[in-house]
């Protein structure tokens, strides 16, 4: 060190090492050097987790839940570094690192093994043992060990004194899947909890996605749980002592100015997730507002005669037919995109068999000749419809959706919330449509919801706006088509059509 004698340098270095042994906060400074960007959040979390693991409560195990927004250094502060310091303080203890998959867990293991190799001997006198891989490594004493696995990989072995679960949920699709959340909870109950030694400590680090995620269930179901929540935008009684509205990590360049700009762009970008996603991911407080995914007041109305030009038009089909009252209806909807706005133009929702469904699609396509695409989910009944209609007219698109029903609705809900989605005023189906959306997912039938999310998802996330395509129509054609529709509406009238008739045709 420039300007210092060897003796003074050695004295300062020994002092730094002693501080790193005693304080996890100081350990972070020591092992990361100039690469470490210290923040109020990192200092706070370092002190809190050290206090947490050093406290002997006498409980069977204790749980610390840490909720922070993404890209604010939580993993670097805790998962990538803390196990290496913990082994130095407790060289006979065992650690399990778990994340959403094996590769991520291995990365965490590699970061810790690098620190043990570089600093373990100097700071704590640690020596590596026989097992030395990113998935598992042990100390020469044969006791101290770190195991890194995906949270669903079926972790086995001797009991752990410290379990760290870092982001067990990968994305919104998994978070919205009730099946996956159930599997994750079962893994905690049946596997992870059984791997805890007496008096063990559990640290769960999460960016919250859902009001029923692992952190939420632990908070409700376990006895000895402490929660630390650090939202990106400070609220009242902030743990860091921030003023209301202050950003979380200005030290990383994410100051109040950045916060204002980022929040505005995030909430107003339909592809990001809107206010609901912001509240969950960045304020770390997922909320159920009235139990609905989509609110009634979000929908806008329009008068069809006020629209002089429509752009890209699609027909979206949700087909489940077995001619039984207990089965879902068939929903066939017409949606158009005009600039940044989306218009629901027609909805037929009824029990129908295969022939009746086919005839309904043909008739609706005739009523809307500007249709460019017919969207049909490529599974079960939809596959048969696709194969038949492709021989009759172009533009039949097989849709292979990703994620569950809730996930798909969440993907399009920001566009609805932002006021960019319109429904026709005065149509009989409009109110029924809104009622089904308002009650979703706790409704007996969600066919209209499925057809809508399919159409909006296609229009929102397809490769750009097709622009002035052959499907664009003018006011004169709309008027002519309206007259034709009035003449042919009888074919879609329940009074003139028996959906359970033997002929199955209009």
Description:
The chain has 506 residues and is an alpha/beta fold. It has two domains: 35-230, P-loop containing nucleotide triphosphate hydrolases (Rossmann fold), CATH 3.40.50.300; 296-492, Nucleotidyltransferase, domain 5, CATH 3.30.420. Helix content is 40%, strand content 18%. The strands form two sheets. Strands 3-4-5-2-6-7-1-8 form an eight-stranded mixed sheet, with helices on both faces. Helix 1 packs across helix 2, helix 5 (82-89) crosses helix 6 (102-124) and helix 14 (405-417) packs across helix 16. The longest helix is centred in the first third of the chain and has 23 residues, at 102-124. The protein is elongated and about 90 Å long. 38% of the residues are buried.
**What topology, given as strand order, has the largest sheet?**
3-4-5-2-6-7-1-8
Overall, the morphology is elongated
Low-confidence stretches: 322-327, 463-506
Count of distinct structural domains: 2
How much of the polypeptide forms β-strand, as a percent range?
A: 15-25%
The largest sheet is:
8 strands, mixed
How widely separated are the two ends?
Answer: 90 Å
Structure classification: alpha/beta
Helicity, as a percent range: 25-40%
Compute the gyration radius: what is it? Answer: 29 Å
Number of strands: 15
Integer average pLDDT:
84
């Amino acid at each position: 060190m420039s300007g210092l004698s060897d003796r003074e340098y050695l004295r300062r270095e020994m002092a730094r090492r002693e501080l790193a042994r005693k304080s996890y906060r100081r350990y972070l400074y020591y092992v990361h050097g100039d690469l470490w960007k210290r923040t109020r959040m990192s200092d706070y979390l370092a002190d809190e987790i050290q206090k947490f693991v050093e406290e002997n409560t006498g409980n069977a195990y204790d749980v610390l839940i840490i909720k922070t927004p993404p890209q604010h250094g939580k993993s670097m502060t805790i998962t990538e570094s803390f196990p290496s310091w913990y082994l130095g303080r407790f060289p006979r203890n065992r650690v399990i690192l778990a994340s959403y998959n094996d590769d991520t867990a291995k990365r965490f293991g590699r970061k810790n093994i690098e620190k043990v190799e570089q600093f373990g001997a100097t700071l704590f006198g640690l020596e590596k043992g026989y097992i030395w891989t990113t998935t598992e490594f042990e100390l020469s004493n044969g006791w101290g060990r770190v195991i890194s696995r995906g949270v669903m990989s079926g972790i086995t072995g001797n009991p752990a004194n410290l379990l760290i679960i870092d982001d067990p949920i990968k994305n919104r699709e998994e978070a919205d899947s009730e099946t996956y959340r159930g599997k994750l909870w079962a893994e905690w109950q049946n596997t992870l909890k059984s791997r805890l030694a007496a008096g063990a400590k559990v640290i769960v680090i999460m960016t919250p996605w859902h009001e029923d995620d692992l952190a939420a269930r632990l908070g409700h179901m376990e006895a000895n749980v402490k929660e630390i929540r650090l939202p990106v935008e400070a609220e009242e009684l902030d743990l860091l002592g921030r003023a209301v509205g202050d950003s979380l990590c200005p030290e990383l360049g994410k100051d109040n100015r950045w916060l204002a700009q980022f929040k505005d762009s995030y909430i107003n970008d339909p592809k990001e997730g809107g206010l609901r996603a912001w509240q969950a991911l960045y304020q770390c407080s997922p909320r159920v507002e009235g139990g609905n995914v989509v609110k009634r007041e979000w929908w806008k109305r329009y008068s069809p005669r006020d629209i002089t030009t429509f752009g890209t038009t699609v027909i979206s089909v949700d087909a489940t037919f077995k001619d039984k009252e207990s089965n879902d209806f068939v929903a066939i909807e017409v949606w158009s995109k005009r600039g940044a706005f989306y218009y629901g133009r027609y909805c037929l929702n009824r029990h129908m068999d295969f022939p009746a469904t086919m005839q309904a699609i043909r008739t609706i396509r005739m009523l809307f000749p500007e249709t460019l695409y017919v969207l049909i989910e490529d599974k079960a009944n939809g596959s048969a419809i696709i194969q038949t209609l492709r021989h009759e007219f172009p533009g039949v698109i097989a849709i292979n959706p990703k994620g569950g029903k809730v996930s798909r609705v969440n993907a399009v809900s920001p566009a609805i919330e932002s006021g960019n989605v319109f429904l026709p005023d005065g149509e009989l189906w409009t109110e029924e449509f809104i009622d089904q959306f308002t009650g979703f997912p706790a409704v007996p039938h969600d066919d209209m919801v499925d057809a809508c999310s399919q159409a909006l998802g296609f229009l929102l996330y397809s490769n750009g706006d097709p622009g002035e395509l052959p499907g664009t129509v003018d006011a004169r054609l709309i008027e002519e088509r309206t007259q034709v529709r009035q003449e042919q509406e009888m074919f879609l009238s329940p009074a003139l059509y028996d959906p359970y008739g033997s002929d199955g045709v209009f």
